[in-house]
Structures are given as structure tokens and as C-alpha cells.
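Supplementary material to the annual report.
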Amino acid sequence: MDRFKGRTGCEATIFLKDVRISTTILDESGRRANGTKAFDFIAEAVLEQQLDYTGNLELYGKRYGVCYSPLMIEGEVIGMLFTGVDIVSILESHRSMNYWSLITSLVGVTIAMAFIFISGKILNKYASLSERQLNQQILMANISRRFLSDTDIDLMITDTLRMVGEFLNIPQVLLFWLGDDGFTMTCRNEWINPKLGLASRIGGKMPLKEPMLSMIKSFRPDSGEDACLSSNDEVVKKAMAPYRVSFKNYIATPVFIKGEMCAVIDFSREDSGTKWSESDTSLATLFASTLSGVFEREAMGRKTSVVENSPIMIFYSDAKGNLVYANPAASAVTGYTSAELKTGGFNLILGESDLRDVKNLYIPQTFKKGMIKHETVIICKDGQRRLLEVTSFIVEGGMIAAICMDLTETRALETELIKAKDNAEQASRAKSDFLSNMSHEMRTPMNAIIGMTSIAKKAENNERKDYALNKVEESSKHLLGIINDVLDMSKIEANKFELTPVEFDLRSLLQKAVSFVRLRMEEKQHRFSMNVENNVPLFYIGDDQRLTQVITNLLSNAAKFTPEDGEIGVKVSMAGEKDGICELCFEVSDSGIGISPEQQEKIFNIFEQAESGTTRKYGGTGLGLAISKRIVELMGGQISIDSDLGKGSRFIFTVKLLRDKNDSFQQSGGENTSGFSSAARKGEFAGRKLLLAEDIEINREILVSLLDETGLIIEIAENGREALEKIAADFNSFDLIFMDMQMPEMDGLEATKRIRTFEANMSKMGSPVKRIPIIAMTANVFKDDIENCLAAGMDDHIGKPLDIDTVYEKLRKFL
Ligand code: ADP
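Predicted assembly:
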């Protein structure tokens, strides 16, 4: 064919049927186009209809004037003869088309004639050779398809080893992988002809010694030449003899990934006599290079899929800082599609200075150090800013990959944690300051109580005794105030702080609050003024005790923090009224030391005092304002402060109260609910009988002596059981029971329940008894405790330590 081309300048091909078995035509990669097929329409015209086909055609990118003629042997068409001439070169050589068509058809006819004389034998040889080539092509096509069809690479390899093994009709095909040492080969995939019953070779090792190692590594499967070690070669056979376990007749082809040998395919044949044919070695080479491609794609694919599926943002940039690739995670975070990112580049997501840093700082540094870490802020499509920790490093092709961890939430959390920690530390500092203050605050009145008591005991004249006892009373009240504050605070912290609404009169409430601080104000010669605006209604339903507590607290702070001769004022005005609910505004102002703006933010917090120095100078627990704030909030209002350091303070708070339009209360009940109880008159309860159930002797003694003058007959029971027995023994003789709650043997709740059951049983039995009022007398003062008392059948409740006025009030109510 080549000689023909040399002489005529024409391309020539012999087709067996429609397959090119010999040709001078080169494909795009410059290889002979052997094994390819003729166009169907030509094959049909020439092979089936036995016509000549002439025309012009494009083959492998070149346009040819062509002529296809049938090749006949003994009257049968066995193939085609092709001649073609490159039209461009004709035009360049200025010869006419006619000349070339004449030449081609003439040559075609001449060669066709010549073939008639070619012996059938030669053609048969060609026929069987090309049939094998065809089958080999089909095999390779199937192998390629197999590699495309599955994802389990091991399965695919084993299956294709089988396909090649069966095609070559040999006992086994093994795939050995090169170990890390660079020469030990381990069998990891195999196909063994099942008919032969051979043992598996998986895991079997084969060292690849020099010079075989260098020799096999030097093969280049893509060179177009066959690349295998073959036992056909005596040198190879001898060198490998010690390592071959079973078959001595073999070919071994290397598999490369990116130019590095990674594995060897070992094809073994049983009979040592048969040599490996050229087509065997070319098939082995072809198979090895197909496997190389598959492995390379696999490695690439894995890399790509890792990057593509990574939940972490990954960007690739070129050396100039142009964005080349952004993975889907980057799109998801930034809100830009990958196409937008590709066209818009880093300009889309980086601010001006960050962009400058990327180009001038980070990229040069990455090239210098190989890998660097830095933080950058990106701006997403929706304007959101996100903080990234970027690890950038050099990758193939002179590019830079940047793996970006989104730190936004973590950093925000970190900041919040630090803030929370600071707050917790400050709270804990405030708490421990509070405890030491508290200890001081409680010891001071205790000290006074103990000291003044012993002075009173020793005092010889009554005046001194009275003075000391007044001080004891004052200190005890102060101590009680602290204890109440602590209790309130613990209620607030346990979410048990609730209001108890009753009818009350605002004017009396204000008087009562002022009366608590009046003494102190008088001592310091404060000028005091109170102004209740005319339109403020007087009667309400609400928790008068708690409201008094807030006003008292503010007033006593004002008295405490205002130097002598200062001014203190209380103002009450209407802030509004809706559906019978009045919003009242209270102002307590003073011309005292004032509070700095920073401290103003803190003083309503639990345990906080404006300055730690304040405590030492002025005393206090730091609880009052926190409690006041809570009370005001429960009453539907707010508290605020307006203060100038050194000039004075003004506390303003609002509360919502239900207006009371009950006239009868206004006329008759006002006095009673004002909180002022007049002292009991001598002999006021003469002849009435009280049962006092109390286990602690001193408590009994106090009550007995306090009530001594009233003429009340008091019988004692030391626990619940005794109380029950006394009632049962003489049930109609008692008018009232004061019942302690915690007592040995039987507590107050149990005793009350039994007394009530006893009363009920007596009535049922026909000897009716009057229901004796039972009043709890206890230090358990939470709302729950009071509810428990009432549920057990008690009628009222008095808190300990006893306030004698309250005791009188209750006696009057029930006797
Ligand atoms: P306490 O007075 O028992 O320490 P409070 O909660 O009532 O607790 O007050 C907290 C702090 O607020 C006080 O320690 C003081 O520093 C500051 N404060 C409260 N009222 C006034 C006021 N009228 N003038 C100046 N400082 C005040």
C-alpha cells in the first residue's frame, strides 16, 4: 500500500468486507486507521450491489476524492479496494480533478484486477487475522463499557480480567500492585479459569528484582508500541525463573498512574511451548493502558468528588488571584451560583482591602511557604458577612486551593461565652460581696441587741432601761427587715413571689410608709414633702403590703443617702385609667449623693450596690431595689432612676391598681386596713380562752407576757397531740387556737385536720360543738405554706417573729 502511495500520491485501503485491514490513511492522531469501518452507505453500494462508488468524502479531517471498488474472489465479493486523493493537495498542485478521478479509478481497477490473482490462502490468512483483530476490538469495547457501568472498581477489575483471560483462553490473569517499598508486588485482583481448579493467588507476593524492575518501568504503554515483559524472551525467562511459582509461560504488562508504575498484570499460559503472539502482547498492552486510564480517572474522580461534595467551602485560584473554581458549598454559603462566582471572581465576595490582601499578601505567601492560614471576611449575596478561616496551599498546575472554614457562628458563640463568663464572674463576685455584706449587716443589729439587752438588765433606772430596750427594738426590726428581704429574694429566685390583693386606702398606706422612716429623717433634719395630686383616687384593690414595701425602701434609701438638712419628697400622680384600672406614678426624690450613670444600670440587679465603698459607709444588702423592681413589675409597672452624681436622685415607678368603688369599705373599713392597730386595751379580752400550741418555751413565754394585760386566759399545749387532747377533753371551753406548724409528735397541720374531724364527728353524734377558729403561727411564710394552712382547716395566719399589732388585730377579728 505504501509503495502504491509512493508511486501515485494516492491513499489506498484494502477492506475485508467493510473493515480496513490495510491502509495508508492516517487518523487524527497520525496512526494508521486499521481496523476502522467504511461508511455504511458505501459498504452497501459496493459490497451488496457490487457497484463502484466515486465521489468526495471527508476522512479524519481531510477531504478526499475517493473511489471504492468491490474485491472479488471466485465470483464472491470479499471486500473493497479504496483509493483516494487529498483534494487540497490537488488544488495546491494545480492539477485538475478530472486527472485525479481518472487516476484513482484507473488505479482502483488495476489493483482490483491484481487482486484477482492473489491466492485465496493469503486472503484467508488476512481474514482470520482481521477477524481476531475485530474480536479484540469488540472485547476492548466491552471492557470499556464494563468500566463505565459500575462503581465498584474491584468488581470491575476482576470482571475485566475474566474477559481478557477468556478471550486469550489462558488459565489465569493476575493483577499485582506495587508495594510502598517500590519492588514487592502483591496480588490483589485475579481471574482464575474455574475449570482448572487452581488455588487463589490473592495476597501472594512477587518481588520484582532488577533488571526486570527497571525494564518494566521503562515501558511506555502510550508509546504505541507493545509494552510487556514476555517469557518469549529468554533473558526475561531466566531472570524471573526463581520468582515464578506456577506458570513459566507468561507476559507481564505494567499499569501506570500519572507516569508512575502502580501495578503489573500477569497473563499466564499453561503450555510452555506456545509463544505469545504479537496480537496477544498488543491486547495485553491495550488492556494495561485501559486500566491505567481507569485508575487515573478513579483517582481524579475521587479527588473531584471529595471537593464537590465537601460541606466546606473550597476555592481554586490561579497565581494572579483569579477565581478558577468554587465548589457547591461555596455557592450555598455565598448565595452566588458557581457560574456567577466564576465570572464575578473574588470581587463578588471580598471587600476592597481583603481583595488586596488576597492578591498582594496571601497568594505570594502561599507560593513562598507552600501553605498558609489566615482569616478573611466574605460578603454574601444577601449582604451577610461571614468570617472564614482560610487554609491555602499550592496544587497542581500552579494553582492555589483555599479551604475555608466558616467561623461566623463559632466566633459569635465564643464572644457570647466570654460575655457570659464575664457576667457569671461578676454575678459571683457580687454574690460573694453580698454574703460578706450580709454577714456584716446581720451582725451589726445582733450586736446591738445583745449589748443593749445586757445594758437593760444591769440598768438601775428606768430611763436607761427604756433607752436600751428601745434600741433593742429598733435593731430587731432592722434585723427582721433584712431577713424579710432575704426571704423575698429567695422567693423571687424560686419564682414564688406573688401578690396578695386586698382592699386598701392609699393615704393610709403612704402614711404608714413614711412613718417607718420618719424617725431617721427627723434625726438627719431632712425637709420632707408629700404631694398626692387631686385627681388620684384613694381606694384600690391590690397588694398594699408590697406597695408599702417599695415606697418604704425608696424612702429609706433616700434618707440613708441624703446628708443632713437635705430634702426628700414623695409625689403621686395619675398616669392613666382604663376599665377601672388606674396607673399611678410615684416619685421619690432626694438631694443626696446621687448615682453615676454606669452604676444606675446596675443598681436594680440582685446583690448590686453602686460602689463597694457605699456598703461600708452606708450599710445595706443591695437587695432592696431588686425586690422593688420585681414588685413593681408584678403590679404591671416599671421603675427607673434619674440621678446626678452629687446632686440627688429621683426614683420613678408606676403600678396598675384596680380602683375600689366599695363605699362601705371607704367609710368603715378604712381605719382597719390602714395597717395601724391600736394597742390592746387593758382587759380587752378578759374571760376569753386561748389554746396556744407551741413547742418552744421562749415563744410561749413571749406571747403569754405580751397578752398578759388583755385578760386573755391562755392554756398551753406543747405539741399537736396535746392540743388535740385538750380540745377533746373540754371542747366547748376554747374560743381560739394559735397553732405552731412545726412541732414534735404531731405537727400543726395534722392537729388541725384532726380537730376539724373531731368537730364533725361530734356534730354527727348529736352533740354539736362550735367551730373553733385556728390561726397558724409560724415562720413558714411562703404563699404555699399559707395555702397549706387554710387547706388543713385553719382560718388565718400570723408570721413569726410576731408583730404584736398583728396579733391584736387577729384577736379582735376572731374573738
Ligand atoms: P441597699 O440600699 O440595701 O444597699 P438597694 O438595692 O436598696 O440596696 O440599693 C442599691 C444601691 O443603690 C445602694 O447600695 C446605693 O449604692 C444605691 N442607691 C439606692 N438608692 C439611692 C439613693 N437614693 N441615692 C444614692 N444611691 C442610692
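The radius of gyration is 55 Å.
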